[in-house]
Structure formats: structure tokens, C-alpha cells
Amino acid sequence: MAMTAALLPIPATLSPASAEPDEEGSAAPLVVDRITPDSVDEDSTLRVAGEVTNTTGETVEDVTVRMRYSRHPFTSRDELDDFSTGEDWQPSASGPDEEFEGELEPDGTLEYSLSTAADDLGLTSYGVYPMVIEAVDGDGTTLGSQYTFLPYTGDDDVPSLDLAWVWPLMDSPQRADDDTFLDDELHGSVGADGRLGRLLESGAQVPLSFEAGDEDLVEELGLEEDEEDPDESSPTAGEEVTAEESADSVSPEATEEGADEDEAPSDAPDEEDEGEEEETPSRTEGIPVTWSVDPGTLDDILRMASADHEVLEGALDDPAKEPGRRDQPADPAAQVWLREARGVLAADTVVASPYASADLVALLLNDMEGDAEASLRLGQESVARALELEADDRFAVPPGGLMDERVQELYTEHGAQRFLLSEEGLPPASWISTTPGAEAPLPASGDEAEGEEPHALVSDSGLTDVLSMPSWEPGESALALQRFAAETAMIAGESGAGDRVVVAAPEPGWDPSPEFASGVLSATDELPWLSPERLDRVELPDSKDREETRQDLDYPDDAYGDGLSSTYLGQIEDVSRDVRLFNSILVGDSDPFRPALVRLESVHWRDREALAGATRTLVVKSVQSRREDVRVIPGEPVTLASSTGTTGVLVANDLQDEAVHVYLSLYSENSERLSVGEYTHHFEIDPGAKTTVYVPLSARINGSTNVHVSLQNADGEPISSQDTLIQVNATGLGTQALLISGIGLLILIAALAPRALRKWARKQTARAGAAETGATGDGPKEGEESAGSQDPGEPQDVGAAAATSEPGSDTPEGDKEAEGTAPGAPADKEPGDGVPADDGASDGTPSAKDDPDDSGSGK
């Protein structure tokens, strides 16, 4: 039913003459602390107790507290709303009162207690009756009043109503990237006095221990990372290996074996257990509840409990400013909360929203099906990881209880047949005047397998509004509990209602006082018209017994307008492209930033655009930082001592959890001056390890040339925005030319030295012969030519011939002529060497030992 005013707080004072509290948090003029019992019968005694505070600022006299009521019950739930405002009709029947004589000073208080036998009230039948508790002074001026309700069962047969509870454990996304919390709100929420701590304990309906104790909760909860034995063939973190070793470290056979092992979980059930049905969780005490969890919230708590993390300071105060950061150790309160949650939730049904309550409708409208799929997959994985149990995938929990046909089809593909919806998403039929039951059939969506018919379980909006009533200030919890009793009594007493199940589902951010939260569960068991029901046992009636009580599935136009905009989701897709580039170098199917992206797509960002933008910026920076962790380590400039050389390029993977597979690209700025040879282009690097790739270089010209080095993925996309430069200086080419020239000179000297020595020796011999001739008087007379001049008819001196030979005349014939050897005769042979001594008659050429004067045959 439409509950237009149920969220309005019940006013503390409604008379025009009464005084309002001066400021927020000050005492109300009239407080109702207790109304007992919640419902009365003909044998009950009604008691109402509380206190009156003088908030007028002036002394008042002769205060009276009294009860007024009506002997006519409400006829519809809408009348409850009208009466709660105090602006409708006023009950006229008088009930018990209590008078206080004397003065009441400003801010003074009086405690009151009213009681009366129910039989004296004159109530006639089952129903909910109006009741007002008010305080007046001696002049009849109203100081304060509270409008509430009196359920009465009488002596008639009491109708029955089945009530199923959906108990939320949800919060808005608390992290940007996986290690960065936006604030410390969640740290306080999981404590004994925090919102999630109170909801867990009140839903458990038994006292919980929020003390850590002496046990090691990190080990007990399995929060420690498994330490694998290092493989002797693989490098340890930080160890430097070559690209060749890295590429050869994993064989195809080993890869296939590893894949098979990954596909087979270690805790897979035995074949003999495959046919056994999964045990249904069963609570042993208290009211059964279905826990509705946000996997993103559970994942946040798990991360907070597992290890050190960063907490931003001031991110919510001014999203435009760069927030401060502080390191936070693993939170013991989160560890305790997880320990208690694992024990409590195992006894009940657990259903899950998409991860971080992703805006599925907006994602599908903007063709982001992959992100919508990821939100459901991550949801199941996160619940299993945090709670060590599986969420019931038969149930779908669309954010806000709203979905369209595309969302239904998506859920159906993931096995869901039961959809927890709000009345806004599946409104009551216009002709119906009573509260319809929770069950409603849904049209089949997609190619569904044979099995359960898809149907909705619709929460009652009136109860949702009542559960959202204030309950923290004095008296608020008592009035909210009384309204809850009145609402359920009205539903149960509706004419022609028949057997129905109503679902009570508070808002995801529900923050009740412990008194109110535990009180509504106790009332479910104690109120005579209520019977607790398990949600997983609510079945859709057979079609022949089914009454059409609801309209078609609806996603309101204003809900479309409130969804995440196309502009905002376009910005998320920009971040996704950076993430895709980072993922392209990771080994395997790892996608570490997928949870962060889905958190950015949460419905919680719809009206928090500034904070959403700041959070998105943090994620972008984190992605860029992680990409830069895979890098080329710059080295010193390279000097080539010759035309060729080899340099090592050191590539580091500073990621601690991810192995990477990268492609190394090098090119010279001037390939005519310096060229790059063949090297190992692609290789794998373990987490925290380094690899050296050896690259041959060849220089053609002296000088300095830059070599650009970059890391790419398999598609040739650079993973860093800037290349690393290696400066190569070629200085060995001038030295090499000088060396070659020197070697050539030595060869020339070695070739000419013997010839020069021979010439020098012959010249010395000729000079010695000339000197001997001059000494014996046979030398030339005065006026005759010297031995250096050629006289026709005189034999030529060997030394003179050598001295007068033309430069460069090094032919064999010239040598022979210079040596005075006849063509065809051995040169420089002495007698006795197998050649007859030249006696001057052979060819007319004197031998080396012929007497110079014996010149009978000169030519």
C-alpha cells in the first residue's frame, strides 16, 4: 500500500501553544519510554510510562499527564499515517491521568506512569485504536504530546500473518583502489558499538563476543597468505635472471599441468558425495532471518582485517583537495567481526546484491554488459572468500529493489529465480484495497532451464518506512515499536486477506538502536498475530490458486533519471582502458583492478558526484603507478671501443603479486650511424624479479646516438608513457684506422728492409773495392773519370748500378741487371755451389770476386 507519510517523525509536541526544544539534541517536552504490553486483550492492564520536561523557559504549575483515545479502530493503513501527523481528527475518550501539584521549573522533569485495565477502555473488537499521551499545565495549555497506537485483540479469534525478515549487512563502497580506504568510518562500524556490529548481534539474537582474546585471528580466519615452497628452477623475488632463462623456465607441459591443477579445486567433493543434497542452514534459536549482504562491504572488511592499508584523511570533507594519507595496521575489530559473522550467518540463508551494489540498469543501458557480469561474479566470489560460505544464487537482490527486463535476464543467466523487489518495482494492483502477499509471478526471461518459475518476493514498503523511523533519542524506540505492532496488526486484520506472507526488509543503510532492532524481532515472536517465516521457504502459489494482486514489473522513469549518467560511465570506461592495458601484460587472467572499477559503478555514487570524481582520480593514479612498476632500469651511457659491442638492458617487475609477460622494443635514433642487432624480444618476469636482455650494437660512424627502449604488450602498445634512453658513444673507429695504418707501415718496412740492406751492402763493397784500387796505384789517373762515371768499354760497378737504378725499378730483370747476373743464371752464387766459377769467358759479366783490373770482357 502507498505509505506517503510513514517516514515523517512522530512529533514530540503538536499543540500550537506548546514549546519546541530550543536546539537539536535538547530534551523533548514529553517522552514515552514504555508502553506495555505491545498489544492488549480484555484481561490486560495497559501501562504507559515516561517523563515530562519543562522546555518553555518559564515555570509551569500543576502539570497533568493524561491519555486520550478512541473507541473506534482504524479502518485502513492510510489512516495510521494521517493520525501520526497530529493534523487529523483528535480522539475524545479519556483514559487514565496523573496530576503533579506545584511548580515545575524550566528544564525540570517529572516522571509519570499511567495504567488502566483494558476492560475499562470499552474496546469492542480486534483492531488498532488511536491513542494520545499528552501533558498540560493547570490552565489546560498543552506542554507536549505523543500520538501512538493501541493494538487490541479482544476475545475474538486472532488473525495470523506470516512475516519473513531480510536483515541487511551493507554499506557504501569504502575503498578507491584495493589498499586505500576513503575514510575510517568502516573501522568504527564493525566494532561492538558500530552499525554493522550492532546489526550482526541483533540479527544473531544471541550475545556475541567482540573481544579479540589471545588467539591469533589472522591465522584462525585464514587471512595469512599461503607460502609456497620456492622452486629451485625459478628465481626468488628480486633475483636477476636473463631473458633466455626466464623464457625457458616454464615448459608447455608444465603449463598444461598447472592449468589442470588450477581447474580442479583442492576441496572438490568426492564422487560419492556428488548426489547428496546440500544441507539447508537451520537456526536453532530465535527468529529466522535472511541476511542480505553487499559483497563489496564484506570485501572491504576482509581487506581491512587482513593486512596494513592506507586511510585517507579529509577525502570526504573537500574532494577537490589532495587528501592526506596514513598507514593503518590490520584491524583487530574487523577480524573479530568476521569471526562472529562466519558463525552467525552459517545458520541462516545468505543472499547477495551485486558487488558494491553496482548500478546494473545504467550499465546495461550504456552497453557495459561486461561490467554488469563482473559485478555478479565478484559478488559470489567475495561472499565465499569473506564468510567461507556460498550465497544462495537462487535469490537476486537488485539495488534498491528495482530492475527492468534486461536486469532480470542477466540474473536469470546466473541461475536466479527469486527476486527481492520493492513495491515501487512491482506495485499493488490499482483495484486492490488490502495488502498483497509478497509472492508475485514474473514473466519468463531468456532461455530458462526447466525448474522453478521466476517470481518476485516483494517487501512491504509500509514496514520498510516504519523500520526507518528514528529510534535513538529518548522515547523514539518505544514509539517506533508501537507503530510496528500497529502496522502488522492492521495487515493481519484486513478483511479477506487469507494466508499471506509479508516481507520486512529495512533499507540497506539501516541504523536502528539496539533496543529497536532486537525489539522488532522479539515482537515477531510475541505478537499474537505474527508468525515468523523463513524466506527461502516462501513458495509461489499454484497458478490455479493464484490471485493477480500486482501490476507488471516496472522501472520508474525517475529511477532512470537518478541512475549513473552516460557521461560518468564514459569516464569509467576511460579508466577501464588504462586497466585493460595493464592487464594485457599480466600472466594468466588476472584482473586486479576489476573490483575498484565495479566500486566506481555503485548506485551509492548517484548523488555524490564530487566524491565519485575524487575516488576515480585515485584509481587512475593507482593504475598508472602499477604500470610503472614494470620498467626498464636506466643504465650508464654505453661507449663502444670498436665498431660493435653488446649492452645489457635491465627490466624489473616490482609488482609483488603478479608475474608479467612483456615485449622489449629498441630502436636507434640514427640507424645510419648506429644499428641494433637481434635480441630476445619477449619474456616473462616473476613478481619482484629482474631480467637482463643483452642487445648487440653496431656503429658505422663515430659519435653519440640515443637508443630508445620501451616495454610493450603483445599488441605493440607501450605500457609506459615515456621511453627510456640509452646514450651510445662510438669512439673506437679513429683508433682502429690508426692501428690499420700502423700495421700496413710495418708490413711495408718488413718487405723493403732486406732489399735496402742488400743495396747498402753492395754499395759498401764497391766503395771498399775503389779504396783498394786507389791504394795500389791502379786507380784512375788525374783527369780520368772516377769509378762513379760509366765509361763505355768498362765494366759497371755493382754498387754504382744499384745507386743509379731508377726509383721504383723493382722488377726481377732490373734486379738481375743491377746485380750483374746474366738472364737465366742463378744470382749471388759462389764457386763451389754447384755452378762453375765465372772465368770471364761465359757471358762477359764479371763475378763478385773478379779482379777489377781483369776487364778483358767488359760487356
Q: Your description of this structure?
A:
- The protein has 859 residues and is an alpha/beta fold.
- The chain contains 21 helices and 29 strands.
- The strands form seven sheets. Strands 8, 11, 14, 19 and 20 form a five-stranded parallel sheet that branches.
- A hairpin with a 5-residue loop joins strand 6 (127-136) and strand 7 (142-152).
- It is elongated.
Number of helices: 21
The oligomeric status of these chains comes to single chain
Largest sheet: 5 strands, parallel
Q: Give the helix/strand class.
A: alpha/beta
Distance between the termini: 149 Å
Task: Describe the SSE topology.
Elements lengths: L29 E7 L8 E9 L6 E10 L7 H8 L8 E12 L4 E9 L9 E10 L5 E11 L8 E9 L10 E2 L3 H5 L5 H10 L12 H4 L19 E3 H6 L3 H12 L25 E5 L1 H12 L2 E5 L10 E5 L3 H14 L3 E4 L7 H6 L3 H19 L7 E2 L8 H9 L4 E4 L17 E3 L13 E4 L2 H7 L8 H18 L7 E4 L9 H13 L3 E4 L23 H6 L3 H18 L10 H7 L8 H20 L1 E4 L4 E3 L3 E10 L6 E9 L5 E3 L5 E4 L4 E10 L3 E10 L11 E7 L2 H44 L21 H7 L7 H7 L41
Parallel strand pairs: 8-11, 8-19, 8-20, 9-12, 10-27, 11-14, 15-16, 16-18, 22-29
Antiparallel strand pairs: 1-2, 2-5, 3-4, 3-6, 6-7, 12-13, 17-18, 21-23, 23-27, 24-26, 24-28, 25-27, 28-29
